[in-house]
Write a structure and sequence with these properties.
The complex is a heterodimer of chains A (about 260) and B (about 260).
Chain A lengths: L5 H21 L5 H25 L6 H22 L6 H22 L7 H32 L1 H9 L4 H26 L7 H8 L4 H33 L17
Chain B lengths: L9 H7 L17 E10 L2 E11 L4 E5 L6 H6 L9 E6 L2 E2 L5 H7 E4 L10 H8 L5 H10 L16 H13 L5 E5 L7 H16 L3 E6 L2 H7 L2 E6 L2 E6 L10 H13 L1
Helix pairs in contact in B: 4-6, 5-6
Classes of the chains: A mainly alpha (about 260), B alpha/beta (about 260).
């Protein structure tokens, strides 16, 4: 099985973009422009990333470049979370802390326990999957904690009024938000291999790796993602909860933003 | 003192708040229950309470009355530190609220909210939030104080009627044995029968020594339950006196409010 489709192969795959555009035109969805723009951006962005990765992954290049790449991913991911969860107060430093904590935990296990050798070729993809798969759950949990504490304000204040400290008053609502954020990842982990063949395994098989070897790598990746999602959502949920209470255990939730 | 986190020396707290403090003989009657001094709550351009200076005595039922948006609930919430003033000072039985451990303050100053707030789970589980591990006998006793039967313990709290749920919330608050009750329009979502039952219950607690501050916009209710009235309009206190002082010689803003309220009744 070839692991390089060449430029001709890439050009041929553009037919599939044409299929999507044709369906949008046929159904009057008005999304043709967005589809073409997205496809063009993806091509340009991935080509740029490919050139950069060629530089960073060179066997003679210092590992410092790889670590810098990982840090850049974390900062970009935190900024994405900030843009998608603007209503959550001071979410940027919190997201940074969450991705940093998940990075320390997951990379320590993967490289400390020699699951993978520590080199550019493993560090960057693993860190990328850790960050990329945690972003959506992080945004989800940040918004859910805010909404739970806002919507259930009466109950939270009734608990505070009984003399409960803020962490105890918020506990049931935090639990609900964490479950909402984690269940999709758990379901995805359960469904892997049955409903879909995940990307890492597919890529390895396309590159000629033995399927059983590819499966082992993929399982390690799934566990990496589960561990990193659990870490990031917990750090963010606890952080958002702390930001919504004062030191004297008062709830100060920002009002719902006006529509429009 | 376990769980104590505040800048006040534990000995001072012990003197002010004995463990069981719902009897007037324990407190110093001449010290006001709540003493607001030049209190502002809110932000520049959006003040909810403006320059309020008023004392609320420890005995009897004091009603804070006024139209919607007058700042009544906000003033009440200063009493258990669910709200904090931007300026001014609030004292509880002589101690600055800002210096007290808020968690211990809230055990001594119970609150019942406008809408019943039963938590998920049974009535027993609701009561255990206030005092974990309390025996069923003690729970039955506090339910009876709220005129509820003991067999309610296993009922899901969210399936109770409005009146029952509000009395469960009161029972839950009473479990912490507060010497003070802050009632924030507790009957506004109840039917007339349940409303009268809660009023009588609260008058009974007041007669037995609990200090009560009751927020209401219902003048007929205020006449039934209050020993004194604080009238708030637009964030300020405009009148303090006995309930019947509202009928005679009240200032202009109060007369206007009374006319509008009478029209609504």
């Amino acid at each position: 099985m070839p692991n390089d489709i060449g430029w001709v192969g890439l050009a041929a795959s553009v037919v599939l973009v044409a299929v999507a555009v044709a369906l949008s035109v046929a159904r009057h969805l008005g999304l043709e422009g967005s589809m073409l723009w997205a496809a063009s951006r993806a091509l340009a962005q991935l080509l740029l990333v490919g050139v950069a990765l060629e530089f960073v992954l060179d066997v003679d290049r210092s590992m410092a470049w790889s670590w810098a790449w990982v840090l850049a991913m974390i900062f970009l991911a935190a900024d994405t979370v900030r843009r998608r969860a603007r209503e959550v107060p001071r979410i940027y430093p919190l997201a940074l802390t969450a991705f940093g904590a998940a990075g320390v935990v997951t990379m320590s296990v993967l490289f400390g326990l020699s699951v993978f050798p520590l080199e550019a070729r493993t560090l960057i993809p693993m860190a990328g999957m850790m960050v990329g798969n945690s972003m959506t759950s992080t945004v989800l949990v940040a918004r859910r904690v805010l909404e739970e504490l806002r919507d259930k304000r009466d109950e939270v204040e009734a608990r505070l009024a009984l003399g409960l400290p803020s962490r105890d008053a918020a506990r049931p609502y935090l639990r609900a938000a964490l479950r909402t954020a984690l269940i999709p990842q758990i379901e995805s982990t359960k469904a892997v291999g049955l409903v879909f063949l995940p990307g890492a395994m597919t890529g390895l098989i396309l590159a000629g790796t033995d399927p059983i070897d590819a499966v082992r790598v993929q399982v390690a990746v799934m566990y990496l993602v589960l561990g990193s999602v659990a870490t990031t959502v917990t750090v963010v949920a606890l952080g958002v909860q702390r930001r919504l209470f004062t030191r004297d255990h008062r709830l100060v939730v920002p009002p719902r933003p006006a529509p429009g | 003192m376990s769980g104590f986190r505040g800048s006040v020396r534990p000995g001072r707290l012990r003197r002010t708040w004995p463990r069981r403090c719902n009897h007037p003989a324990v407190t110093t009657a001449e010290v006001p229950l709540l003493d607001f001094a030049q209190v502002w709550v809110g932000t520049e351009g959006a003040w909810r309470v403006r320059d309020v200076t008023v004392e609320i005595p420890a005995s009897g039922v004091t009603a804070i009355v006024g139209p919607s948006g007058a700042g009544k609930s906000t003033l009440l919430r200063l009493g258990n530190r669910l709200a904090a003033p931007a300026r001014g000072r609030v004292r509880y039985r002589g101690d600055d609220v800002a210096d007290l451990d808020p968690l211990r303050l809230r055990r001594a100053v119970g609150m019942v909210f406008q809408r019943p707030t039963p938590f998920a789970g049974t009535v027993r589980e609701n009561l255990h939030v206030a005092e974990p591990g309390t025996s069923d006998d003690e729970l039955a006793e506090v339910l009876s104080q709220a005129e509820l039967p003991a067999d309610l313990l296993d009922r899901p709290a969210t399936e109770l009627s409005g009146g029952e749920a509000q009395r469960v919330c009161l029972a839950r608050t009473l479990l912490t044995r507060p010497g003070t009750l802050l009632m924030d329009e507790p009957t506004s979502s109840l039917d007339p029968g349940a409303r009268l039952a809660l009023e009588q219950l609260t008058r009974g607690l007041s007669r037995r020594g609990t200090s009560v501050v009751w927020v209401s916009h219902d003048l007929a209710q205020v006449r039934r339950i209050a020993d004194r009235v604080v009238v708030m309009i637009d964030g300020t206190v405009v009148h303090v006196g006995a309930p019947d002082s509202l009928a005679h010689g009240a200032p202009e803003p109060v007369r206007k409010f009374l006319e509008e309220a009478a029209g609504a009744e």
